[in-house]
Amino acid sequence: xxxxxxxxxxxxxxxxxxxxxxxxxxxxxxxxxxxxxxxxxxxxxxxxxxxxxxxxxxxxxxxxxxxxxxxxxxxxxxxxxxxxxxxxxxxxxxxxxxxxxxxxxxxxxxxxxxxxxxxxxxxxxxxxx
Length: 129
Prior knowledge:
129 residues, 5-stranded parallel β-sheet
């Protein structure tokens, strides 16, 4: 069993990426292994780094988060995607694209960690069955 949850943070805002990296890296059992500034970069990094979970923004250049989520889930369905956006009205679109969870930016780190841990625990239960 792995010692840490490997995360990738995808957001075109460098300050948001850095803040999330700092906050989440301080959480026990979490390791931020990659950051991407576009959906296109996220798909490329997902292939190379193969994170457990991707925190995916929606509105980004080159390839938006919905398209990137579809691409990631098509190629690596075991990678969990949590959409993290300012736009709560995109929740249905995110789930239709294959997102595993949906969070609105501004949620607490504890809510984000709860969501991450729930996804990992669900995955572990599937493996046990």
